[in-house]
Design brief:
It contains five helices and twelve strands. Helix content is about 20%, strand content about 35%. It is elongated. It is an alpha+beta fold and about 230 residues long. Strands 1, 2, 3, 6 and 9 form a five-stranded antiparallel sheet that branches. A four-stranded antiparallel sheet has the order 5-4-7-8, with no helix packed on it. Strands 10-11-12 form a three-stranded antiparallel sheet, with no helix packed on it. The chain has helices at about 125-130, 145-150, 160-170, 175-185, 210-225; strands at about 5-15, 25-35, 40-45, 50-55, 65, 75-80, 80-90, 95-105, 110-120, 140, 195, 200-205.
């Protein structure tokens, strides 16, 4: 199994809770951990089983804190800025992923992103990773080599499957992203797809799509291209 890459987003919020006229007023701050999906959407970081925050030594018995449920939110208060270390533990023995984080008070809210690589993920982790994006070389369902299975497929009347395939190849990049999402959201257990992140390719066997999804794709391409 090839390595799988994901992007972790850390969101930090802070505000003054002490006397604002003090040179270093007391502040409340919190940090949350999320993943970014294929379209930069925020997703639960459920590929991790826990997050361990190692804070400044002045926190004493609270210097190391562990959280076991996304978004692994830590809530604290203090007056100083400092560098901390956040260690994320992948599910199903998915390794330790250390992320250095700069806690600062320049903005009330700020976000940072970090690339994380899962080396040879096991099945339990792979299932979680599929929820946040494509897996290199992953195939969904079993591609049927029997052409008779395709011939038995009876799409809605008025849909030319060869024309649909031709229309899909003519779509602009932005529309193709919508089509990939449409397929992802509406595919069935028999649908065959393949994602190749390194090559930037997405493959689908149209004959394995549900009839309702074929109709959606047909109507979408016809509307965008103005042809039938």
């Amino acid at each position: 199994m090839p390595d799988v890459k994901r992007t972790v987003k850390l969101t930090t919020e802070q505000k003054i809770i002490g006397n604002s006229s003090d040179e270093m007023p007391l502040r409340s701050w919190n940090i949350e951990v999320h993943l970014l999906g294929p379209h930069n959407e925020e997703l639960p970081a459920n590929c991790f089983e826990k997050a361990v925050y190692k804070l400044h030594e002045t926190f004493e018995d609270r210097q190391v804190q562990t959280f076991k449920r996304p978004p692994f939110r830590i809530q604290e208060k203090g007056w100083g800025e400092f560098d901390m270390l956040i260690t994320l533990y992948g599910v199903d023995k998915g390794g330790e992923h250390q992320i250095p984080h700069d806690l600062n008070f320049q903005q009330e809210r700020y976000e940072t992103t970090h690339a994380v690589v899962f080396k040879n993920p096991k099945p339990g982790l792979l299932e979680r990773l599929k929820e946040s994006g494509p897996i290199p070389g992953d195939t969904n369902g079993i591609k049927k080599s029997d052409e008779s299975a395709k011939k038995k497929k009876r799409p809605d009347k008025g849909i030319d499957m060869e024309k649909l395939a031709e229309n899909l190849q003519k779509m602009h990049e932005d529309d193709l992203l919508l089509i990939v999402q449409m397929i992802h959201d509406n595919k069935s257990a028999d649908t065959w797809t393949k994602n190749d992140i390194d090559q930037g390719e997405f493959q689908v066997d149209l004959y394995t799509l549900p009839d309702s999804l074929i109709r959606q794709l047909w109507d979408f391409t016809v509307e965008k291209l103005g042809v039938r």
